[in-house]
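Hi all, long-time lurker, first post. I run a small reading group and we've been trying to get comfortable going from sequence to structure in the token notation. Rather than ask abstract questions, I figured I'd post a concrete chain and ask someone more experienced to write out its structure so we can walk through it together at our next meeting. Sequence below, copied exactly:
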Amino acid sequence: MPHRESSWKFAEELVTEGDAIGLARQHSLEAGVDTVSPGVGAQLAVTAALVGASNIIEIGTGLGVSGLCLLQGAPDATLTSIDVELDHQQAAREAFALAGVPANRVRLITGRATEVLPRMNENSYDVVLVDADPEGVIEYVEHGLRLARTGGVVLVAHALVNGRVVNPAARDGVTADYRTLLTEVSTSPAVISALATSGDGLLQLVKR
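-- Answer (accepted) --
Happy to help. Here is the structure in token form:
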């Protein structure tokens, strides 16, 4: 096990983040807002680049770290980001501006994702990132798969729930939901799935 931990640490520390992402990460830490790790952020950027994303939606804006990572991989994409916290979105808007992202390429929607997502167009997004209230993860993924185009990608951050998913003694509702999600997508004919162990886990789904 120790060599796995050292390999994970090496991979995380290998990532070099730009000033805008670094500052947004620092502000997130100061505000007590959980965000994706540098390793996961790098995977978000690579995924957005690989699919040639032009239309991205994320559930959970935070203070802009994940959105900046996605746009780093797809600098010409349009990002729609949903979050219930207006203050967080205002900070994220400042982070996007600092990074030089044109205001017309970022649409921030303040509201509950469960109320906003049903109004979004299906089969319209190249990348969907789920990084919001863990208690709603199954519903968010269902919406994500509806919104993603065929061949599009749905990404679920924090898929290992701070290590609880792999701990058989952890039986709380959120952990159970993530276990159910991971088990179901691993055998679903509707998606191609992979679970990366970077950060707190990143579930990757390609819509067939």
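A couple of things your group might point at:
The chain has one domain: 2-207.
The first helix runs from residue 2 to 14.
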